[in-house]
Amino acid sequence: MWRNANLVRFVATLLAAVSVAWAQPQTPAQGESESSSYAAARRGTATVEDAYRVFLTMASNHGRVELKGDVDDLSFEEVTAHLEALCIIDPDWSYSPDTCLRRDVLAYLCCSYLGYRPGVLTGALGMTRRYAHREMLYRKIIPPGTPGTLVSGSELLSVAPRVSRRIDPKRDVQLKDNQIH
Fold first, then answer.
1. Nearest to residue 52, comparing CAs of 16, 96, 1?
2. Closest Cα to residue 56, out of 89, 84, 82?
3. CA–CA separation, 102 vs 17, rounded Å?
4. Per-residue pLDDT for 108 more than 60?
5. What is the Cα–Cα distance from 34 to 56, expressed in whole angstroms?
6. Is 87 exposed, middle or buried (CB count within 10 Å of its CB: 0-12, 13-18, 19+)?
């Protein structure tokens, strides 16, 4: 009986060690830099800088902005200037790069990027983060939750493809000449 108990303990310890080793995040090889999306996915809570870089990358991929070089090479101020020029962020915002990203700010970025405009009442006052959060919940762009909740890196990266699909839903579809009508 003791033999079986020791064997069970040994197997349980071995499985625990393997699962901990397997769950360790992969790091880039020495000399390689970590991309901003990889860094955001590994981070527990996304930052405003992460979100700004994700949305500027999307804008570049959709042809809304022409960048010289990569988004990761730009400073936070340059990224912010590009997003302000595209009217994706409010010019009155003064978030620092390391500010934790909240759901209402992410919703505002999504709403602005997609070009959703507020109704009559909020049209006179301008779009608010609260309106954007309600709109993005209704359109199922962001998962349910309260506006003040912090966004994880993986949640930020799961929202980006939903926004991208709304802009160009057939982007990945390759049609042949005989399929175009």
1. 96
2. 82
3. 35
4. yes
5. 18
6. exposed
